[in-house]
Amino acid sequence: MATIAVIGGGTMGGGIAQINAMRGFDTILYDVDDETVNRSLQKIQATIRKGVELGKTQPADADSALARLRGAARLADLAPADLSIEAVPEKLDLKRDLFAQLDTILKPHALLATNTSSLSVTALAAATRRPEKVLGLHFFNPPHLMALVEVVRGDSTSQATMDAGVAYTRAIGKTPVVCKDTPAFIVNRVARPFYGEALRLLGENAADVPTIDSLVKTLGFRMGPFELIDLIGLDVNFAVTQSTYNAFFHEPKYRPHPIQQKMVEAGLLGRKTKKGFYEYP
Ligand SMILES: NC(=O)c1ccc[n+]([C@@H]2O[C@H](COP(=O)([O-])OP(=O)(O)OC[C@H]3O[C@@H](n4cnc5c(N)ncnc54)[C@H](O)[C@@H]3O)[C@@H](O)[C@H]2O)c1
């Protein structure tokens, strides 16, 4: 694999593009919104330069990483990619439509990966004529710091694709964990009650946001549930909870909370809008 296409330049796509460029892959970043591509490229540039200032990155490595990274104005510009990694919003129809388009654009040998947190890899694969070449590569936030990548085997994914996914994950310095295509895979399924119970406690006025977060951190967690939801994005976290709840036929333990719905509707999405459960002036 030499060239990687990343689709979606938001919270996850930008970070995934950065890792790939730093690890020696030619990287093409596309977003439906041109401004997002530019903003994301600038952010990556600033992060890499900061690494040089801090002595973590050699100037020559930074220069070659930046030379390997470029933006794309059209989906068709992703044609040279050997692997595409999709990181667009958590909506099945949107992702299926994108996979169908990528299938017609990418070369026959190319693999198509999704960074979905909860949706079915098998359903996305079915939108293509190469379901054996579709897999999940689920990165965690922030991608440049989090070691784990869930490598998800859809029902039609071939062993060769899984082997390539695992080898690629190691090549970018991450730790692959092979998962079945089950709703929310492993980490996000385990994490649903972490967010859900915290929201229910808040809804019952059992404690306020900082109290719940600080108590959870005394157990050894790096972040409390509300700090983490703000980092993830309330919209993204809510979409993942909704899709998990629906995938398990309204299993009560995954039920979304009205507090979060109201905040999403009000545009209080966390760090990315500078206001969520906390403010980020
Ligand atoms: N935020 C997290 O902590 C996190 C962690 C792991 C996985 N994920 C998953 O990654 C995916 C993306 O999440 P995010 O937090 O980066 O979302 P985000 O909202 O920050 O970014 C999504 C980007 O996709 C772009 N987009 C929308 N439609 C598009 C299209 N048709 N083609 C190209 N670009 C399009 C948007 O303009 C936006 O820039 C989701 O599936 C999410 O579940 C998120």
Rg from Cα? 19 Å
The number of helical elements comes to 11
- Find the structural class using helix and strand composition: alpha/beta
- Would you state the CATH class of the largest domain? Alpha Beta
Share in β-strands: 5-15%
CATH topology of the largest domain: Rossmann fold
Give, in order, the helices and strands: EHEHHEEHEHEEHEHHHHH
Q: What is the terminal separation in angstroms?
A: 41 Å
Main beta sheet: strand number and arrangement? 8 strands, mixed
Which small-molecule ligands are present, each listed once?
A: nicotinamide-adenine-dinucleotide
Plain-language structure description:
There is one protein chain. With 281 residues, the protein is an alpha/beta fold. It has 2 domains: 178 residues, NAD(P)-binding Rossmann-like Domain (Rossmann fold, 3-Layer(aba) Sandwich), CATH 3.40.50; 82 residues, N-(1-d-carboxylethyl)-l-norvaline Dehydrogenase, domain 2, CATH 1.10.1040.50. It is built from 11 helices and 8 strands. The mean pLDDT is 97. The structure holds nicotinamide-adenine-dinucleotide. Nicotinamide-adenine-dinucleotide binds next to helix 1, helix 4 and helix 10.
How is the secondary structure organized here?
Layout: E1 3-7, H1 11-22, E2 26-30, H2 34-53, H3 59-68, E3 69-72, E4 83-86, H4 92-105, E5 111-114, H5 121-125, E6 134-139, E7 148-153, H6 159-171, E8 175-180, H7 187-203, H8 209-218, H9 225-232, H10 234-247, H11 258-265
Parallel strand pairs: 1-2, 1-4, 2-3, 4-5, 5-6, 7-8
Antiparallel strand pairs: 6-7
Helix pairs in contact: 1-2, 2-3, 9-10
